[in-house]
Design the sequence.
């Protein structure tokens, strides 16, 4: 079990907060290929991103009150299960419509991690210490939007059997 005032707890909480940006930014490099594979228009593929953002915004309003009633850990585990299950559904989506629905579910799960990580900080630390902890989490988490597109591109290239679809690659 992670104890308060450890860098390990700070890192875990920062990773939980990073779920949302990573799930969005890692996905973007594959959007053209997703459209091609699912025979979807650019607008339909962009709707998968918009639906994620809408689901993420809506989901955040529910996790605080639910975790106040049932506890942080069980609600966090359910949020992670929803996120992981929806991520698997995204990977196996047979159509763009399925992908849009799976992305909404993924966002609903991912939104719980950001809310609950911050609630855990509020539970564990007093005002000034909580601010310091949130700042540390923010510093660690700020790396996510930088690394996620790179990781997404790497996954795209690897899953394409060595073919790359990046604009600067010289191949399409």
Sequence:
């Amino acid at each position: 079990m992670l104890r308060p005032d450890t860098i390990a707890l700070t890192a875990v909480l920062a990773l939980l907060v990073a779920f949302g940006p990573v799930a969005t930014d890692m996905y973007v490099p594959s959007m053209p290929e997703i459209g091609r594979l699912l025979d979807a228009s650019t607008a339909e593929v962009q709707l998968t991103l918009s639906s994620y953002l809408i689901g993420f915004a809506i989901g955040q309003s529910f996790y605080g009150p639910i975790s106040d009633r049932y506890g942080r850990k069980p609600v966090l585990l359910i949020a992670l299960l929803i996120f992981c299950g929806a991520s698997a559904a995204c990977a196996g989506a047979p159509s763009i419509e399925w992908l849009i629905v799976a992305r909404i579910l993924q966002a609903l799960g991912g939104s719980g991690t950001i809310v609950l990580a911050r609630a855990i900080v509020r539970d564990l630390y007093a005002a000034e210490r909580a601010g310091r902890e949130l700042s540390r989490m923010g510093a660690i988490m700020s790396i996510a939007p930088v690394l996620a597109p790179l990781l997404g591109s790497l996954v795209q290239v690897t899953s394409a059997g060595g073919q790359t679809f990046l604009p600067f690659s010289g191949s399409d």
Observations:
- Residues 5 and 133 are 9 Å apart (CA to CA).
- The domain at 7-159 is CATH 1.20.1250.20 (Growth Hormone; Chain: A;).
